[in-house]
Write a structure and sequence with these properties.
The protein is an alpha/beta fold and 293 residues long. The chain contains 12 helices and 8 strands.
């Protein structure tokens, strides 16, 4: 099993769609190549930003194949697999080819609202079935449940192939406890673009970023500057990105980042229902800000 620690700036790739609603694979190749060429450290396929719940089995397979083919082994690849049914998630992991996949990102089960015992047992089952290291994904704003610091630390200490957590709780008290008490080698990744800099300042190893679809070079450079303890330069990059980060999340993700990518000529701004594109007013603000950048 790969034991390489995960570090740096990762991009949670969008899934571009054509005007007829089908997946736009040429645009996906273009965005993947763009992020790699601009210095991103690793790639996340089929995360939240990819609108994964709206993709069918064949589309998921082809999205992963397209990303792996374009990447061609240049950057580590993280594959998102999740769901509300632990048994179904374990089955999906067993049926998945992990050739070219370096890590598994597993989100907390959503809608069910499991307690901490249920969350522990879910990630235990995922870890036991995964042929690659596992990254916990805590995003209570989407799942309806929070993975507590105690549960995260217990999993980190007891399951050797759970090697990181993507923390998108926004709860700094919780994040700091994990950072303080985690076992050696266990990584904390920011799951919120807007608070990546302070999370890194507290000791986190990196970020899984949405804005990196459009600004991979700036996000990767900011993370690098924090690694090198160059707070002044990192802070400058943080504030350069902050307004755009706020805009792309103002009316939901990934509608905002897709609006930005359309203005950059990388893909359409089409999203699948129940998501809808951003309003014309926000669209205009994003366009004007990108011109300034």
């Amino acid at each position: 099993m790969n034991t390489t620690p995960i570090r740096g700036a990762g991009v949670a790739l969008v899934t571009p769609f054509s005007n007829d609603g089908s997946v736009d694979y040429p645009a996906l190749k273009q965005i993947t190549e763009f992020t790699i060429s601009k210095g991103i450290d690793f790639i996340v396929a089929l995360g939240t930003t990819a609108e994964t719940p709206t993709l069918d089995k064949d589309e998921k397979h082809e999205v992963v194949r397209t990303i792996l083919e374009t990447n061609n082994g240049r950057k580590p690849v993280v594959l998102g697999i999740g769901g509300s049914d632990t048994r179904a998630v374990v089955k999906q992991i067993g049926e998945q080819s992990f050739k070219g996949i370096n890590y598994l990102l597993n989100v907390a089960p959503y809608y069910n609202k499991p307690n901490q015992t249920g969350l522990y047992k879910h990630f235990e089952a995922v870890a036991d079935s995964s042929p690659v290291p596992v990254i916990i994904y805590n995003v209570p704003g989407r799942t309806g449940c929070n993975i507590s610091a105690d549960t995260t630390l217990k999993l980190a200490q007891e399951k050797s192939n759970i090697i990181a957590t993507k923390e998108a709780s926004g709860n700094f008290d919780q994040i700091m406890v994990i950072l303080r008490d985690r076992p050696k080698g266990f990584a904390v990744l920011s799951g919120d673009d807007g608070i990546t800099l302070p999370t890194l300042a507290l000791g986190a190893e990196g970020v899984i970023s949405v804005i990196a679809n459009a600004c991979p070079d700036r996000m990767a450079h900011m993370v690098m500057m924090m690694k090198e303890a160059n707070l002044i330069q990192a802070r400058k990059l943080h504030y350069e990105l902050l307004e755009l980060v706020q805009m792309i999340f103002a009316e939901g993700s990934p509608a905002g980042i897709k609006a930005a990518l359309k203005h950059m000529g990388l893909c359409n701004d089409i999203v699948r229902l129940p998501l809808t594109p951003v309003s014309e007013a926000l669209n205009q603000r994003i366009r004007e800000y990108l011109k300034k950048m």
